[in-house]
Amino acid sequence: MEGRNVAAMRKILLGLAIVLSTSTAALAVDRWVHIKVEDGGANGEIVRVNVPLALAEKVLPAINTKELRGGKVKCNNAKIEEVDVRAILEAVRTAPDNEFVTVESKRNHVRVAKSAGHLLVKVQEWKGADKDNPDAKGKQETVDVSIPFPVIEALLSGEKDELDVLAAVRALGTIGDTVLVTVNDKDSKVRIWVDSRNTTE
Amino acid sequence: MPTGPAAVAGGAGTLALAAVMVGGAFVYDMGAVHISVQSKKPGGEHIRLIVPAVAAPIAMQFAPKRELQKAVEEAGPYLPAIKIALEELAKCPDGPLVQVTSPREKVNIAKVGDALVIDVDDEGETVHVSVPLKAAGIVISQLESIPPPDREEHAKHSPPAEGGPAM
After folding, report:
1. pLDDT per residue over B52-71, tens digit each?
2. Which of A46, B10, B114, B115 fits B101 for a cystine, CB–CB 3.0-4.6 Å?
């Protein structure tokens, strides 16, 4: 009786292992990061880049330059050492959804918030604004960044003075479709997102 | 069992045929590099080149060594990454990788089958290049094996290692 149970358990575990390994492999192969840059200036150029995450994951460790080594970027910037970025992000991650930073001035609005497991940074800037005339706000430029917390955690999982880009790419492969960065200004639009399609829309 | 000169000739013929078939299979497996350049000027030229990809690594043997070393020096740190990217691309589904569209030109780099296809359409000409990924990988491996000029010079002028074979 006991032997039959062990055999059944073994079969279930084997089946589970097969399902998990195939689904993980499919996930890694099917995820794509897309970059679209639209230049609204005189050139009117549109650039679209589609990169399979699996490819980025394999290629990153093979690049060994001064800044990027083994999929990690060294940040010799003193600001990172002085501020414990990990501690701040951990505090934000464990806190309930909320708006943490709001800066409002005549020329720009900055908002840092946490919502649905994402760190959101929204910057609105009015270029050419006239500070003496609040109505003349000029042309608006917006930057929206939305990074899932698992990706941020992976990015900061290395040493204190480095960013683990490879771990972040791996983490990107495990999350659902998401828009990471959107920039809109008078001359250009930039969009970076991750999904399962191998083409941009 | 037949013996004599006729049998020897027959055996050699079979061997030669087998060698040709194996060689042909290798050439076929490597694919071909397609290059097409079509000028848009009235009466402009249309150059079409189809070269067996197997010829690319061979052609590298005849390329100026200095130029190859220069290329390796510049692209050196990225060659392993390019090699891996080519291997990984082979596993990816077909699709566009880079597209640049402007009023003056269109550039499209895509993976189509086992090849990397580059299309450029600008005001002056239309260019189409198709390179088999496998052949590109072999070229990159060959580039990796080229020693940089300083290492080569050092090897030329350094004395033979102690304990080496006596000359």
Report:
1. 877 777 777 777 777 777 77
2. A46
In a domain, A200, yes or no: no
**What is the count of structural domains for chain A?**
2
CB of B100 within 8 Å of any CB in chain A? yes
Of B77, B95, B99, the CB nearest to A63: B77
A80-to-A85, A86, A101, A154, B81 alpha-carbon distances in Å: 7, 10, 19, 16, 29
Residues B133 and B117: their CA atoms lie apart, in Å, by 10
Find the residue in A nearest to B104 (Cα): A43
Tokens of A47: 């650039």
Which alpha helices (H) appear in B3-158, and where do they start and end?
5-30, 55-60, 65-75, 79-91, 133-144, 149-157
A108 in the same domain as A20: no
This complex has an ipTM of: 0.71
Do A117 and A100 reside in the same domain of the chain? yes
Give me the residue from B89, B99, B102 closest to A48, CB to CB: B99
CA distance, residue B107 to nearest chain A CA (Å): 9
* Amino acid type, A143: V
At B130, is the pLDDT very low, low, confident or very high (cuts 50, 70, 90)? very high
B120 to chain A nearest CA, in Å?
14
- Interface check B88 vs A, CB under 8 A: yes
Nearest CA in chain B to A70: B81
- Percent of chain A having pLDDT more than 90? 25
For residue B2, pLDDT beyond 70: no
User: CB-CB: which of A45, A49, A59 is closest to B102?
Assistant: A45
Residue A73 counted as domain residue: yes
Cα–Cα distance between A111 and A138 in angstroms, integer? 20
H/E stretch holding B3 reads: none
Share of chain A above pLDDT 70, in %: 75
- Show the domain range for A107: 32-195
Residues of chain B contacting residue A54, judged by C-beta atoms under 8 Å apart: 88, 91-92
Residue ranges of chain A whose pLDDT lies below 50: 1, 13, 16-28, 78
pLDDT above 90: residue B36: yes
pTM above 0.80, yes or no: no
Residue of chain B minimizing CA distance to A62: B81
Q: Is the pLDDT of residue B17 over 90?
A: no
